Amino acid sequence: MSRILIENGRIIDPANNLNRLGSVYIDDGKILSVIYKPTGFDPDQIIDARNQIVCPGFIDLSTRLREPGQSRKATFASETSAAAAGGITTMCLQPDTIPVVDTPAVAELVKDLAEKTGYRQILPIGALTQKLEGTELSAMLALKQAGCVAVSNANQPVKNLLILRRAMEYAASHDLLLIYRPNDVWLANNGCVHEGALSTRYGLPSIPDAAETIALAQCLELAELTGCRVHFGQLSSRRSVIKLQQAKKYGLAVSADVAIHQLHLTEEDIIPFDSAYHVQPPFRTNTDKESLREGLANGTIDSICSDHQPHDLDAKLGAFPETESGVSSLETLLPLMLRLVTQQAITLEQGIAALTQKPAQILQIDRGALTSGFSADICIFDPDQEWQVNSGAWLSQGVNTPFWGQDFKGQVNHTLQNGMVIYSRQGVSKPI
Amino acid sequence: MSSNLQLNPEGKLKHFLTIEGLDKNLLIEILDLAESFVGITDHRINKVPLLRGKSIVNLFFENSTRTRSTFELAAKRLSADVLSMSIATSSTSKGESLLDTIRNLEAMYVDMFVVRHGISGAAHFIAQHAAPHISVINAGDGQHAHPTQAMLDMFTIRQVKKEFSNLRVAIVGDILHSRVARSNIQALNTLGVAEVRVIAPKTLLPAQVETMGVTVSHNLAEGLKDIDVIIMLRLQKERMSSALLPSENEYFKCFGLTEDRLKIAKPDAIVMHPGPINRGVEIDSKVADGPQSVILRQVSNGIAIRMAIMAMAMQKQGAA
User: Fold this and answer.
1) Which residues of chain A carry a pLDDT beneath 70?
2) Beta bridge partners of A308
3) Which residue segment(s) compose the domain that A243 sits in?
4) Are B121 and A320 an interchain contact pair (Cβ–Cβ within 8 Å)?
5) Within a 13 Å sphere around the CA of A221, how many CA atoms are in the beta-carbon half?
6) Which residue from A minimizes the CA distance to B144?
7) By the CB < 8 Å criterion, does A196 face chain B?
8) Using one digit for the tens of pLDDT, what is the confidence trace for B53-97?
9) A319 contacts in B (CB within 8 Å)?
10) Complex ipTM
């Protein structure tokens, strides 16, 4: 393994409370030292990070890479390239693949597929219930031993609260984190947009915010009853933020994330019947968006995920309610986070923490920080570099994004994973 | 969200997908043109050569009798060649095959699609993906819009009441699932009526319905006070099985329009219904067939109004 020196960059590492100019020293895939030059350090490679920010690589708690089972939508090869270009060095994979990640064999298959891409950090999330059917518990301990970092029922409902209670008790017995997207499917009633003025005007099947808050409230009660660690994924409503804030104040061991696009778009941004805006949970009101931003700023919401869901063209080609939901979002994660900073919703340190330190804490992994001895997962980006979302710049196989054609500021120049340069932007001087 | 898709750069009608985004002048223009098609003495409609040589395809993914036949008659009165197709939704449940259907018909040099589809937004989708020379007329999409029905309702109201500005209009029944209600609310507000009142139990009203510019009542007896025009909506049987209502019987008791209730409205109030009517469910036969009912006149007016809309949408091609 080579020795790498990253010099002249602004190092921002919230876990170590660091924000200053300096160098990072990497040896044998690990962080050797930050700021302070180790004696006798003789680099094989030097990366000049002048006018750039050097921070830990991003950790994404919710992605779908469509393999195994749906390679017409995306492949590990295409999506890991997109992730590397987006500065993302760890991706948690939702278990709703085909087949579902509900046995150690499928978890191993996921790891094998990942291995072939050269991108080392695809962490499978195991299914909470067999086939995600919500009725029988999966072999959670075996899944954990096969490398699953958490369990989740993805977007599928657990049949009733008794089964959810037992699943949470069982997960807690093995100290497994439950990642839970709160959604009462009965109240959601096959809706596709937020229930309010817009759904009424356009006659679209709608999802009230209560579908989320009721499921959240139930799961919070069960978290207390069972002692299970719960991370709530992709919150979308103001009242969820309030409920979560109360629960945290009360002392429950819970955390939450928000999908990056929920911090930027509302139902009012939806172009009539444009399926690029079809997401679950749906884009809600401006009040909801502002609350999510405040929740992120005051720490009620811990982290930001991409909620990456690449699709083939046909999946988005149809009348809005018949199309599949989701946004391809690995490559817009960083610039959309930086846009929050520009709009003064959060500080840059908070934004980076929400992509690095916080998700690492949630997963209890030794990453997301430039701590000596940690694997050298590093993102080096130019916060002022302007670019446009178009086919020339895009690497994900899914082009389903409402931001297509838009101008962005902030682009990754280099990404390192386990001390290996897995991405360097074209036109940027290569490491020497 | 706006709906400029249906206007060409000169502000002329290209598609007719929804009332939203169309101004009062355009709606009046439609009503006036429709009036010019109606024979002065016998109210019959003569054949005109406006769309000679044009091909129109009626594409019905949902069943319909009145709408489809009046569109067909309207196209024939305009001298267009018309083909009506009923397409089982099962074979075209995916957007991909919907698009394939459109592409295949385009290849036959079609000039206009008249589309009815069970999913909200289907007509928009087709308008966005059809070849640029093709006009799309929405004959009802899911719960979103039924703009030609709204225009024939406006035509019928104007025939009887002459003016819109002082009218109070009640729309009664299943607003939640009704594309007719949505398009009528938008048309009535655009034409500047004094009040649009929706009357229904909460289970049949969409969220924040007042944002569409209506007042709300949950009581038919109270809600009919001072009303000039009553638009009754059809109640689908499946509303009972999905726990939106207890029974047809109870619905009729609370929201059915009877002769006694009709007396609460203004004495010269008219009764409308987009059809097909459920006698004894939302409306008593005596009212449906009574002197204040204009339900059959609505059907006749459907031909003239659809001629007007088709002719205007084709104008952009220099067809006229």
Assistant:
1) 1, 429-432
2) A63, A327
3) 56-363
4) yes
5) 9
6) A203
7) yes
8) 999 999 999 888 888 999 999 999 999 999 988 886 545 555 557
9) 95, 98, 117, 119-122, 124-125, 141-142
10) 0.91
